[in-house]
Design a protein that fits this description.
Blueprint lengths: L1 H9 L5 E8 L5 E5 L4 E2 L4 H15 L7 E3 L24 E3 H10 L3 H11 L1 H9 L15 H5 L5 E2 L1 H12 L6 H11 L18 E7 L3 E8 L5 E8 L4 H32 L1
Antiparallel strand pairs: 1-2, 1-9, 3-6, 4-5, 7-8, 8-9
């Protein structure tokens, strides 16, 4: 039923769009459209967040480790930037915890690039491959005009991120405690244009999003009475239609999950 509703709402969307839905209570799921690969936009920040916790867990990195901002860290790109770090002066000292939280919560591009420089992109890719991500990968830093001009892109698979979030919800990413802490950080993500749009602050949602001129995406877990994973991405010359479609699909999935929960309560009452 939800598959047909999602498909109908997408309609004849002029672009590539992929939707993946997983009911966390039953495991029932559906995928609509292109759930394969999209240019990753800001979704790569989830990957360095995971790598941060892997290193903290194994003891090669501490949350309290210090990093001093250098001239070379500041964005020189003509692209629009996000975050607070670029407004701090050279020589400002920040902690690793500051970096990975800014990276995930405010989608700070400079924080992402610093962490990627510290870790190395192949190390991050190696870590996420252990969790089934074969098509999702980092190929360059953000705001890198030279690599961007060469056509080098980061990529994300809607299906792989959905499976990654499922494993995280089950405590299987790094460790149970690390999974819980990562999800707690994602619940504070400040970009609210899609998954949280109709809920405001009335719904706990662990998610991360990504936006640029041709790509738009939001992927996360909606913690309603019948919680579900919803990962969505779209690519087109005009992403406004995709943004509206994704907002509506989020609400449709919520209504669907609410109905499932009501059905379960009724069936439970009948059994009693």
């Amino acid at each position: 039923m939800i598959f047909n509703k999602i498909k109908d709402r997408i309609g004849n969307y002029d672009g590539s769009i992929g939707i993946c839905y997983i009911d966390l209570r039953t495991g029932n799921n559906c995928s609509v459209g292109n759930c394969d690969v999209f240019p990753a936009s800001g979704m790569v920040k989830l990957l360095v967040l995971i790598e941060s916790f892997r290193r903290i867990e194994e003891g090669t990195l501490k949350k309290t480790d210090r990093y001093i901002l250098k001239e070379e860290d500041y964005p020189k790109s003509m692209e629009k930037t996000y975050g607070a770090l670029e407004y701090l002066h050279v020589g400002t000292e920040v902690t690793v915890e500051d970096l990975y939280k800014l990276n995930a919560i405010t989608s700070d591009n400079m924080a992402f690039n610093i962490l990627l420089k510290l870790f190395g992109q192949e190390e991050v890719n190696r870590t996420i491959r252990k969790y089934g991500c074969r098509k999702t990968r980092i190929n360059r830093a953000l705001l890198d005009d030279k690599e961007s001009a060469r056509g080098v892109k980061n990529y994300v698979s809607v299906q792989e991120i959905a499976n990654l979030l499922l494993r995280m919800e089950n405590g299987q990413i790094i460790s149970r405690n690390a999974s819980r802490e990562i999800l707690s950080i994602l619940c504070n993500h400040q970009k609210v244009r899609i998954l949280p749009y109709y809920f405001g602050e009335n719904m706990e949602i662990a998610h991360h999003s990504g936006f640029d001129e041709r790509e738009i995406m939001d992927m996360g877990i909606v913690y309603c009475e019948n919680p579900f994973i919803l990962c969505m991405a779209a690519s087109a010359d005009n992403t406004r239609d995709a943004e509206s479609i994704m907002r509506d699909i989020t609400w449709m999935c919520y209504e669907h999950s609410k109905q499932l929960n009501q059905n379960r309560i009724i069936e439970s009452g009948m059994l009693d």
